[in-house]
Specification:
The chain is of the alpha+beta class and 141 residues long. Helices cover 26% and strands 39% of the residues. Bound molecules: zinc ion.
Length: 141
């Protein structure tokens, strides 16, 4: 399976999805990301041509599945860091993002979760939620 690199397609907003319907997409994201190896920290629906709000993260040993994630709160501290994207191989863009976020989402068991993240995983989550909104790293240039 090729990662979606079509900018026009990636700019489409993803739709919310019922947990039951998200299961197949979750499995496909896990499968595709596992084939990518260490450089792939996360993948979302639109990157496999499924324009639904599903994210799978495998960042520094922590695996998180998010269905219909919503960022409830941003911390005040912001950090600038070069960010890559599997849809734009070899491209890195310095992006300033809040270090801390609180996110509400449905997890891999179908439970509603509210959790706070900081550091790299917080950045990865913000990057993936941008994807769901049709926002790409090139839009930050
Ligand atoms: Zn990306």
């Amino acid at each position: 399976m090729e990662i979606n690199k079509n900018v026009k397609s990636l700019k489409n907003k993803s739709k919310k999805i019922k947990f039951e319907d998200a299961k197949a997409i979750i499995h496909e994201l896990q499968r595709v990301l596992s084939h990518i190896g260490k450089r792939g920290l996360a993948l979302c629906g639109p990157q496999i041509n499924e324009h639904h709000c599903v994210i799978f993260i495998n960042c520094m040993g922590k695996k998180v599945t998010m269905v219909n994630p919503v960022i409830l709160n941003y911390g005040k501290e912001k950090i600038k860091y070069p960010e890559g994207c599997l849809s734009f191989p070899g491209k890195f863009i310095e992006i300033t993002r809040p270090d801390k976020i609180t996110v509400e989402y449905i997890d891999y068991k179908g439970d509603e979760i509210k959790d706070t993240f900081t550091g790299l995983i917080s950045r990865v989550i913000q990057h993936e939620i941008d994807h769901l909104d049709g926002k790409l790293i090139i839009d930050h240039e």
